């Protein structure tokens, strides 16, 4: 729910974005992809839970391929029921066939940023969100800079307002159910 307090904090030039605003925008980025409002072939979100499940399952698979069984939680990703906030209902290898050809080890690449960008420090959350958005949409990072960071804050407020009034997103939020957690009494610490 977009309140005047939330909008004031987002648009306040000396206010830090809080986790709520950043989480809301990341949710919107995911929904824009899931609803195919953004080009889905360019955008994919992966949670650390999924990544850890894949890593653990692959290690189990390598130990004994004949006895390996896919865990229920991982299967729910396979049939498009997870992540809960971005359900696609698309099944791997039937509806989604390119995952095998694009799956590779993670790499880290650094994006060059101009020196002394974000002199106020309170805009770092705005920069982070807008750089993620630029990356998702294939836009140049230089589009976001100190000269237009105020407008970037306004755009975040507008995007949240628009989502709060979007019937499809409202319906998806109303139907949201968190994923079932599989509790394993064994905890391994590395």
Automatic annotation (TrEMBL):
<dbReference type="GO" id="GO:0006508">
    <property type="term" value="P:proteolysis"/>
</dbReference>
<dbReference type="GO" id="GO:0008234">
    <property type="term" value="F:cysteine-type peptidase activity"/>
</dbReference>
<dbReference type="InterPro" id="IPR038765">
    <property type="entry name" value="Papain-like_cys_pep_sf"/>
</dbReference>
<protein>
    <recommendedName>
        <fullName>Ubiquitin-like protease family profile domain-containing protein</fullName>
    </recommendedName>
</protein>
<comment type="similarity">
    <text>Belongs to the peptidase C48 family.</text>
</comment>
<keyword id="KW-0378">Hydrolase</keyword>
<dbReference type="InterPro" id="IPR003653">
    <property type="entry name" value="Peptidase_C48_C"/>
</dbReference>
<feature type="domain" description="Ubiquitin-like protease family profile">
    <location>
        <begin position="1"/>
        <end position="135"/>
    </location>
</feature>
<keyword id="KW-0645">Protease</keyword>
<dbReference type="Pfam" id="PF02902">
    <property type="entry name" value="Peptidase_C48"/>
</dbReference>
């Amino acid at each position: 729910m977009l309140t005047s307090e939330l909008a004031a904090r987002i648009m306040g030039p000396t206010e830090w974005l809080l986790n709520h605003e950043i989480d809301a925008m990341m949710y919107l980025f995911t929904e824009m992809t899931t609803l195919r409002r953004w080009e889905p072939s360019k955008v994919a979100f992966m949670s650390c839970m999924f990544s850890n499940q894949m890593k653990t399952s692959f290690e189990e698979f390598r130990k004994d391929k004949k006895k390996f069984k896919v865990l229920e939680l991982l299967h729910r990703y396979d049939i498009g029921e997870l992540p809960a906030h971005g359900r696609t209902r698309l099944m791997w290898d039937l509806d989604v066939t390119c995952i095998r050809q694009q799956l590779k080890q993670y790499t880290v690449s650094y994006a060059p940023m101009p020196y002394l960008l974000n002199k106020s420090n309170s805009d770092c959350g705005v920069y982070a969100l807008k750089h993620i958005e630029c990356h998702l949409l294939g836009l140049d990072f230089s589009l976001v800079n100190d000269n237009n960071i105020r407008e970037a804050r306004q755009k975040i407020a507008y995007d949240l307002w628009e989502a709060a009034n979007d019937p499809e997103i409202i319906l998806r939020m109303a139907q949201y159910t968190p994923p079932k957690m599989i509790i394993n009494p064994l905890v391994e610490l590395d």
